[in-house]
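Interim report to the steering committee. The following record documents the input for Diguanylate cyclase (466 residues).
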Amino acid sequence: MGKKISNSRDEQQLIDKQNERKNLKLKYNGKENLRFMAEYDYLTELPNRRNFENVLDELIILGEAEIHENTIVLMFIDLDRFKFFNDSLGHNAGDKVLKIVADRINNVVGSENLVARYSGDEFVVLFKGVTDRENINKVAERIQQKLTEPIRLLNNEYSVSASIGISIFPEHTNHIDELVLRADQAMYSAKKKGKNRVEFFNVEIANEIDRKAKIEQNLKKAIDNNELYLEYQPIVNVYNKKIVGFEALLRWKSEKLGSISPGEFIPIAEESDLIFKIGEWVFLEVCEHLSTWSKKGVPSFYISLNMSIKQFEQHNLVPKLEQHIKDFGVNVDLIKIEITESTAMKNSEEILSKLNELNNLGIEIFLDDFGTGFSSLSYFEKLPVSLIKIDKSFIKDITQHKKRAAITRAIVAMTKSLKIKVLAEGVEEIEQYQYLCSIGCHIMQGYYFCKPVPFNYVEAFFHSTK
C-alpha cells in the first residue's frame, strides 16, 4: 500500500522548499553546483527524478492534497520512437531533441506547475488544484501539438510525437505515491492503442494489468504443471490430395485461469522472457512427436513451428536446436521454422545470420502472415525463405473483394517467378478453395480441410485416410 496523505495544512514549508530549488537552479559554482547536479537534469535543466520524488514526499508529509479538498494531476509523457534519433542521427541529435522537448513542455505547462525529466525520454508534469478533466485533456493535447512542430537536425526537419498517461488524486488513488504508477500504466495503454494518444487511467486499464500479472504468474508454472500442449493443423497439397505437413500450434489450459488464447499469453511470454523456456519446450515436444510417429510407421510429413523474434536473441539458439534434433534422431528435413513479417522486417545481422545457420542445417524457413506488414521483395533477396504463407485476412473475403483477390493472385504469380512455394492459410469455404485452385495456389491450410487436432489424433487421422 502507498502512503496516505497527512492532514497537515502547512503549505508554506512546501512553497519555501520549491523556491529554494528555483534559486538553486540559478547558481553554478562550488557546493551549490553539486546540489544542482544532484537535483536537476544537467541536459534539460529540469528537475530530475530524485527532485520530483522529493516533491511527492513533501506533499505526503505536508498534506498538500487533502482527499476532499484538493486535486493533484500527474501526466506521464513518453516520446514515441525516440530511439530512432539516437540510432539514426547520433546521440548529440538525440540530446538536442530532448532539450527542445523539455522547453516545449515547460512553455505549455507554465511555471506554476512542476515539469521533470523522469528518465531517458520520459517526462512528468505535476498539476495542483486542477479539477476539470476537459482542461487537463486540452493541456495534454497542446503538449502533443507543440511537440509535433518541426525540429531541424542535420539540415533536415523531423517531428516528435508522445504518448501521455494521466492519473488524478484522489480519483484514481488515495495514495499520492501511486500517482506515478497509475499515470505510467495509462501511458502504456496509450502506446498499445497506437501511440501519440492521451489516456486517462481507468478501471479497464487496472483490470487489464491485473489479468496480465495473473497470466504471467501462472505461465511460469505452466510447463511444470503440464498445462501446455500442442495441436496440429494439416497442410494439404490439393493437387495430389495429400497431407504434406502440419503446423504445430501451442495451447494452454491453466488450472486456475482456464483456456488462454496464444494471442494473449505469447506477448506476455515475450515481455517476461518466458518465451525462451516455452520456445524450447515446443521444439522438444515437436521432436519427440516426430520420433514417436516415425517409430509407429506413420507416413512421413513435416512439422512447421512458430519462432518468436525474442528467441533469436539467444546466442546458442542454433547449436541447441541441432543437439535436440540429434538427441531424438529426427530427420532435420521434417522441421520447418515459421517467422513473421515483423521478424523479417528487423533484418538485423544477428537474425539473418541465425536464419542462414538454420537453413544450412537443413531447416527450411517459412514466412508467416505475409501481407499483414510492410511486405517487401527485399525479404526474398536477403532471407533464406522457401515458402510464404498468405495471411488469412486476405483469404477471408477473397471471393467478395476484388482487390484482395487481385493481390492474392499477384502474390502467387510472384512466388512462382521467384521459385518460392506459397501456402494459403485460413481456408474455410469451398469458394475460397476453388478460387485458390484457379490461380495456381495448391498448398492450403484451414478449417475447410480440418481443425487443429491433438497429437494422438494425427496417427488416427492418417489411418482413417488410407
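Confidence is low (pLDDT under 50) at residues 1-15, 27-31. The committee is asked to note this result when reviewing the revised timeline.
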